[in-house]
Amino acid sequence: MPSTSIGDIQLDYRDSGGDGLPVLLVHAFPLNAGMWDPQIASLGDRYRLIAPDLKGFGASSAPDDPGAYTMGSYSEELAGLLDHLGLESVVLVGLSLGGYIAFEFLRRFPGRVSALVLADSRAEADPPEGVAKRTKQQAMVRDEGTAGLIEALVGALSSEATRAGKPDVVARLKELMDNPVAGFVGGLEAMKKRPDSTDDLAKIEVPTLIIVGEDDAVTPPDAARKMHEHIGGSRLVVIPEAGHLSNIETPEVFNGALADFLADLD
Question: CATH assignment of 3-265, given 3.40.50.1000, 3.40.30.10, 3.40.50.1820, 3.90.400.10?
């Protein structure tokens, strides 16, 4: 994978090199850029798909200080990657954590987003019980490593249909979650301190696609419908038998929805 330095951070990324629209794919917690392999394999020739390992994940730098991980710093590093690639604007695709980062990126760099895809994400900040849960998870990985949390998250983030009928996908999810402890702790820190983006929904004017797994228990379809109702002209696609990681669990349906959206932007 190629890489570039953004300040003190080495950011590794995938770049399909396609000739079409540039599309920046921002991964979920606690995965890495490899989660976008099904999209790159399907659409990477038609479009230029760029998938970075966020700070703390994959082969990118993983600073030990949890305070180094914020939605703002993630956004600044993604902007630095676009500068490195000579790209003024992109179609911004964020899934889960990637969606939270997308809201911050839009606030900071609105002119660099030509269109938006929010997948299995939500606009609201964490409620107090969500913050407490993430704090417990941070303590868990500091004390015990990541294996126990990975096992729990595979169950929580995937649908029953995936767990029962797609053992290869379950195994792949575990591989993609095998990331540094510092990235887990930092990612959780960023998510529990992220700002509420609800008031920003009505301000989004770029073409927007919202995708959600029908069985997503983390950011359920109701959260997606709320975003759809407040983002003018947005599209909503609900994917049957998919959980929170719909792009991996049901890649054919996800790819079809993304391809249709991108085709209308050409």
Answer: 3.40.50.1820
Tens-digit pLDDT profile for residues 115-157: 999 999 999 999 999 999 999 999 999 999 999 999 999 999 9
Cα 31 to Cα 1, 28, 46, 57, 180: the distances in Å are 16, 6, 25, 7, 10
| Cα gap 247→47, rounded to integer Å | 17
Q: Minimal CA–CA distance to 37: which of 23, 47, 46, 25?
A: 25
- Return the domain boundaries, the chain: 3-265
Q: Which residues pair with 22 in a beta bridge?
A: 48
d(CA 149, CA 116): 30
pTM (two decimals) = 0.97
